[in-house]
């Protein structure tokens, strides 16, 4: 199973932002002094009158975005995930989510794959922070093509959205020009023995793990949950009713992430043996993305181990 190419997910956002800027004059872009990192350069060059550089003032950026939304514009405000959530949670909660404003919060450089920037920049709790807010839609994409498709989709969605993606170059394996339906899971591989549900960078690792499990005569079903809220509960329950066990995989803390949401669903509807591949109550550290994914147990090998463990509990 070889991907066609490798690209960074943030570039998918940048391409889509430029496209929707051309299609809709109401689209604005705001950035907190990280224009190049967020791949907003092309939009800034093409539409300087619709680009706002707020500097390192994230709270102000969210306030301006709220004002734009109230005037009928569609603001995309972006920064590193750690800054656009942790520094401005009060503004997101009180001004954007509570008021149900049409603000798109764009979070790049999420998770430990920020790498050498270290623990201060490697936010691992942002999905939990965002999914707990009423009215907020939470999306975590897996590759370049999907990030581009998600950006195009949220431009048409009315309401606050948190879009999360990363910095590193990763396999680009989903279809080009794919349809993106908010809140709809993607069945990437059918299987009968175990369900692997992954999000973000861990989707590719889940597919690699499924190939390795196949060599051991274990038939894994792989589901991509790009929308963590609203969660596609029907698709998840349908798969787990068939396989009778589940492994979740995500570049996030175990508490508050995708696995947490699925565990709550299963506790209510279908108690099931479950294992979670995630960071276990720990901050990150400096290192290459590959080193950190391995150390914190977020690679395909650890997905395989989790599958073996959950199968032993049936």
Q: Indicate the radius of gyration in whole angstroms.
A: 19 Å
Unreliable stretches (pLDDT < 50, length at least 5) are none
**How many strands?**
14
Instruction: Tell me the span between the first and last alpha carbons.
Output: 29 Å
Overall helicity:
25-40%
Strand order of the largest sheet: 3-2-4-5-7-6-12
pLDDT averaged over residues = 97
* Main beta sheet: 7 strands, mixed
Instruction: Note the overall shape.
Output: globular
Query: Structural class, from secondary structure content?
Result: alpha/beta
Beta-strand proportion: 15-25%
Describe the structure.
Helix content is 39%, strand content 21%. It is of the alpha/beta class. The strands form 3 sheets. It has a 7-stranded mixed beta sheet, with helices on both faces. A 5-stranded mixed beta sheet has the order 9-11-10-13-14, with helices on both faces. Strands 1-8 form a two-stranded antiparallel ribbon. Helix 2 links the parallel strand 2 and strand 3. Helix 1 runs parallel beside helix 7. It is globular. The chain starts with a strand and ends with a helix.
Provide a brief overview of the structure.
The protein is of the alpha/beta class. It is built from 12 helices and 14 strands.
Task: Sum up the structure in keywords.
314 residues, alpha/beta, 12 helices, globular
Please give the structural blueprint.
Blueprint: E1 5-8, H1 9-23, E2 27-31, H2 41-46, E3 51-53, H3 58-70, E4 74-80, H4 81-86, H5 89-97, E5 104-108, H6 126-131, E6 137-140, H7 144-156, E7 161-164, E8 169-172, E9 186-189, E10 194-198, H8 202-214, E11 220-224, E12 227-229, H9 233-243, E13 246-253, H10 258-269, E14 274-279, H11 289-295, H12 300-311
Parallel strand pairs: 2-3, 2-4, 4-5, 5-7, 6-7, 10-11, 10-13, 13-14
Antiparallel strand pairs: 1-8, 6-12, 9-11
Helix pairs in contact: 1-7, 3-5, 8-12
């Amino acid at each position: 199973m070889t991907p066609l190419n490798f690209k960074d997910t943030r570039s998918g956002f940048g391409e889509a932002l430029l496209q929707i800027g051309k299609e809709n004059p109401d689209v604005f872009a705001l950035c907190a002094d990280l224009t190049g990192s967020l791949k907003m350069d092309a939009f800034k060059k093409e539409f300087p009158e619709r680009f706002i550089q707020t500097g390192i003032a994230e709270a102000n950026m969210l306030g301006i975005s709220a004002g734009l939304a109230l005037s009928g514009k569609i603001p995309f405000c972006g920064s590193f995930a750690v800054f656009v959530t942790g520094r401005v949670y009060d503004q997101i909660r009180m001004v954007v989510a509570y008021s149900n404003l049409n603000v798109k919060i764009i979070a790049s450089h999420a998770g430990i794959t920020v790498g050498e920037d270290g623990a201060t920049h490697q936010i691992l709790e942002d999905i939990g922070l965002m999914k707990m807010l009423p009215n907020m839609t939470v999306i975590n994409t897996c590759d370049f093509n999907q990030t581009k498709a998600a950006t195009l989709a949220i431009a048409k969605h009315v309401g606050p959205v948190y879009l999360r993606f990363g910095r590193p170059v990763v396999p680009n394996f989903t279809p080009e020009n794919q349809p993106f339906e908010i809140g709809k899971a993607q069945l990437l591989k059918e299987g009968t023995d175990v369900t692997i549900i992954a999000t973000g960078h861990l989707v590719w690792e889940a597919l690699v793990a499924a190939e390795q499990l196949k060599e051991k005569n274990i038939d894994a079903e792989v589901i991509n949950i790009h929308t963590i809220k609203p969660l596609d509960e029907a698709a998840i329950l349908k798969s787990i009713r068939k396989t009778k066990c589940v492994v979740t995989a995500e570049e996030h803390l175990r508490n508050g992430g995708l696995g947490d949401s699925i565990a709550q669903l299963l506790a209510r509807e279908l108690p099931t043996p479950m294992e979670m591949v995630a960071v276990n109550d720990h901050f990150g550290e400096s290192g290459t993305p590959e080193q950190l994914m391995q150390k914190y147990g977020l690679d395909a090998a650890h997905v395989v181990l989790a599958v073996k463990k959950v199968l032993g509990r049936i």
